[in-house]
Amino acid sequence: MDISDGQLVLPGDMLATEEEAAPSDNTYVDEGCIYSSIIGHASVKDGKISVHNHINEMRKIEKGMLVIGTVTDDLPAVSFVKIGTMFVDGKKYIAVKDGKLLVPKPRSEGFGRGRHDDRRGGGGFSQPGAKMPRLCSSGDVILARVLDDADDIYLLGVRDPECGVILSSCEVCGSKMGFNGRGLSCPSCSHRQTRKVSQYYGRTEDIKRLFQ
User: Fold this and answer.
1) Residue 179: Cβ-neighbour burial (10 angstroms; 0-12, 13-18, 19+)
2) In the chain, what are the domains?
3) pTM attached to this predicted model
4) Is the model's pLDDT at 163 over the cut of 90?
5) Considering just the CA atoms, what is the radius of gyration of the chain in Å?
6) Which of 93, 101, 122, 182 has the fewest Cβ atoms within 10 angstroms?
7) Is the pLDDT of residue 124 over 60?
8) Residues 107-119: what's their mean pLDDT?
């Protein structure tokens, strides 16, 4: 039996074989193997295996939800995001995989100016018309919407006004970047950075209310 007592498991995770344990709460059997039917913690006791939620009802993050994550890799065509656990209406939602944010191709008239470009959201990009725009960069914390729940990764979008970077550090000195409604600038060294900025940049309490 590879599953240990108290281990976090997801729906469809194999817990044990019927030879190793007897199925109990929130499990099901398929071809002699016992699987979890919910997101929760495995419990092995008295020869039985079950899955329980001890603190909050846990659910899987789904398409359409707002999520908060940290950019881990920033590549020319895509950014990868580590999504944090979310609490919405008293329920706990966990990300069972990472997210990716596709970077739109720049247009000849300047990014953010085309009819279908992502131009809404907290003042848009902090440097409109930049030849190589950046939605975000490694280390940025972003607020995004789940556009698709693919098999291996969440597809994220930042088109909505509330979506975009909500916290960024200066690439030069490491200080927290300030946002004046038009762009990101460092209060310590005056460096400026191009980002798709959320209208809630730096407004922690307002962001919390989005999930209540």
Assistant:
1) buried
2) 8-54 (2.40.50.100), 60-209 (2.40.50.140)
3) 0.65
4) yes
5) 21
6) 182
7) no
8) 40
